Model the fold of this input.
Amino acid sequence: MTDFFKGLSQVKFEGPQSRNPLAYRHYNKDEIVAGKTMEEHIRPAVAYWHTFAQEGGDPFGGRSFDRPWFDKGMDGARLKADVAFEFFELLDVPFFCFHDADIAPEGETLAESNKNVRAIGEIFARKMEQSRTKLLWGTANLFSNRRYMAGAATNPDPEVFAYAAGQVKNVLELTHELGGENYVLWGGREGYETLLNTKFGQEQDQMARFLTLVIEHAKKIGFTGQILLEPKPQEPSKHQYDYDVATVYGFLQRYGLEQDVKCNIEVGHAFLARHSFEHELAVASTLGMLGSVDANRNDLQSGWDTDHFPNNAGEMALAFYYILKQGGLGKGGFNFDAKVRRQSLDAADLLHGHVGGLDTLARGLKGAAALIEDGEFDRLLDERYAGWDNGLGKDILAGKLSLSDIAEKVHAEGINPQPKSGRQEYLENLVNHFV
Ligand code: XUL
Ligand code: CO
Done:
């Protein structure tokens, strides 16, 4: 045991009345909701980067956190791994996620970096034999090092592409060996700052080639997890290619990859694309692309990707509505891509963030399950579209009528549709009744 979390004990469910700030009030992992335990629905994961590697810096000031593993090379990385697994147990969560760069220091060469990552990977493997926490996903950091400033797969220099490929091969194989259920690609620098130095079509081809290589390698090593692309419209690139779910789907279809890849949808990224989170989930679910979720929220005032912990149960209820309707996230889950604020210096703050986030998800889950169980919401939606189930609507959709046929019908039958209320306020109140 390290002494990082000294004095803190495992977070337990105590119910909504509890005033214990380090107890779950809504997240009761074994409680059955809509046929599964809460843990099976949510599949919560701790993000290694925000929780253990984040330094508390902002554009106006550097590190504010003082962690005993900072600046200590591989010794620090080993201590960080010890602390990480203690944290997973304190929170009692089933999953974690990592980038290669979060877990081990970069070396002078790719070989040295990969070796460092592998050494910590071995420690993870040993710890995972004792721990119940598994790997939700792994990913390679292809955006922090300056070699990637003009992109990884989409770099004008093929040697950068090659370096990135070497990094991804290593992390994909490690993810597979650790039993990871997904592999994520977030294209932080796959985009451009200015078209003045960018061949857009060329870069699209490169990105598709890279993804194809990853898919092929995953198959070759027998990785049966999901390959996930994480859309985000900007930051750090001015224009990112994986703008939103619809854009990603168009890209995948163009290169014939839509069967092999799904999306990891992040709340804050949806906002940056000027969508709601539930919009992105609805689009993804409709396209068969809803693979996993990065849970967080943005500071709406700043309009930036601030990665706060989720605290809006109503928003999460709408998210769970689409997740429950598609029968769950399968191999995906809810990764807390969220960080404590710069002034939240204490070890306990890391727990408070996750406890509140998980309680918010639990409230959303229970709300969505109750909404569906009640049935009125779905019935109203079906009623609104009922005209398409038979007669005119059905014939139009089935392609039985030409434009002239339809026009003729309007004249012959005196069709004169009368607008009906969309009842938005009624529906908002109905949803709120269950959250
Ligand atoms: C960045 C982001 C990443 C990805 C993984 O905005 O969300 O942390 O989730 O690379
Ligand atoms: Co993310």
Remarks:
- The first strand starts at residue 32 and ends at 33.
- Residues 378-433 form one domain.
